[in-house]
Design goal:
The protein has 236 residues and is of the alpha/beta class. The protein has a single domain, classed as Rossmann fold (3-Layer(aba) Sandwich), CATH 3.40.50.300. 38% of the residues lie in helices and 22% in strands. It contains ten helices and twelve strands.
Length: 236
């Protein structure tokens, strides 16, 4: 059975995909069959005659277990906006059962599955069922990894998201500090405050990188914390 994690963020465009790809790489380096999955993705670009979602492409490239792009990102919407709005525009409703079935299909081939959500923790998905990404995480009953985009306001966003995760009865398994604003004032002090206030271990602090490849980002993950997470142990 796969070790399953749900990756969420304090907002959109704060590095969830970058960190998910790095976690995939780090797990694979430890001998695990690992992959990042993004069952719902909105926003595609036409490249060499193919419509590509950049996040799905990054996660597909990071895995080495032979999954197809369709298995990594089964529901890809073309319009770059909130997924329920993109689905409405394109006449392709997002259905809870479809998302869950598509997600479960590759799990027998994985030891570690890192399921990346969309945007922040509470993003509408299935309008008919009133089902959002927080409900999705609860349906999976998966420990949550929070990517905190380090910029002004991140402490408030991180604490509110952690509160929402715990309020759904989910475990906050860890968090990653990812530098979005390279000029952020009091950078280390913000990270220290997050370490003190978030009720979960920090899995890494990632600086602003010119080339945030999975390998480059994985260097900044906390090896001991990651080992404990994957082995289901408590961090001393």
């Amino acid at each position: 059975m796969s070790r399953l994690f749900f990756i969420t963020g304090t907002d959109t465009e704060i590095g969830k995909t970058t960190c998910t790809a790095a976690l995939t790489h780090a797990a694979a380096q430890r001998g695990w069959r690992a992959a990042g999955l993004k069952p719902v993705a909105a926003g595609q670009e036409l490249r060499a005659g193919r419509w590509i979602n950049e996040d799905v492409a990054v996660l597909h490239a990071a895995q080495t277990v032979g999954l197809t792009e369709q298995e990594v990102g089964p529901i890809q919407l073309r319009t770059p906006c909130a997924p329920h709005l993109a689905a409405r525009l394109e006449g392709r409703p997002i259905r809870r059962a479809e998302v869950m079935a598509a997600l479960r299909a590759p799990l027998p081939r994985l030891d570690v599955a890192l399921v990346e959500g969309v945007g922040g923790f509470r993003v509408p998905l299935d309008e008919e069922a009133g089902w959002d990404s927080a409900d999705w995480a609860r349906d999976l009953a998966a420990p949550v990894i929070l990517v905190v985009g380090l910029r002004l306001g991140c402490i408030n966003h991180a604490l509110l998201t952690a509160e929402a995760v715990l309020g759904r009865g989910l475990k906050l398994a860890g968090w990653i500090a990812n530098t979005v604003d390279g000029q952020m004032l009091q950078h280390s002090e913000n990270v220290a405050t997050l370490r003190a206030l978030l009720p979960a271990p920090c899995l890494g602090a990632v600086p602003r990188l010119d080339a945030p490849t999975p390998e480059a980002v994985a260097v900044h993950l906390d090896a001991a914390a990651l080992d404990c997470l994957l082995l289901k142990k408590d961090l001393a």
